[in-house]
Target: 50S ribosomal protein L25
Amino acid sequence: METINVQKRDFNVKAKKMRRLGMVPGDVFGNSLPESISIQMEETVARKLIRLKREGSKLMMNIDGKTVPVQIKEKSLNSVNSEILHISFQALTADEKVNSLIHIIITNDDKIAGILERIHLEIPYASLPEDMIDTITIDVDGMKAGTALTVGEIPELKSDKIELQIDPDSIVLRVSERKNYTPTAVEG
Model:
């Protein structure tokens, strides 16, 4: 599991100035901590996290020499310039279930004859940290028009170690027929 290095936040520097200096503010919270910890990390580390990980991704965090297992809980970005404003992490405890998201990744969507509708690509669930799932890849190559895949049909989600927080009959994706549009002549 990947480890990132962060420091406890220096409150003598305001968040705006901190970002100009190449640092991103954040926080770590959880029942295993006596109180929430305000942190700061290098912008390069934060950018890599945003690019490679998702909300619900699990990693190790080194806070001033103490290593803590965490998941990314929330990230705030400036929608105008993509500046990372803040990242929140939840500390994980081995014997405590945690709420998270599984991200559905679809491959070979260019190889189906129909139209692919992506409906639920984030599946909310709860599990112990050791049973957490970051992503599930679904290969849609060969799926025919009329096919619908539900949450309950995904093999990884049939585990008794995962407590789904969505109806198993919810549709993840559906393949519809392509409608051929033929313009009709306007009589005049």
About this structure: The first strand starts at residue 3 and ends at 8. The radius of gyration is 21 Å.
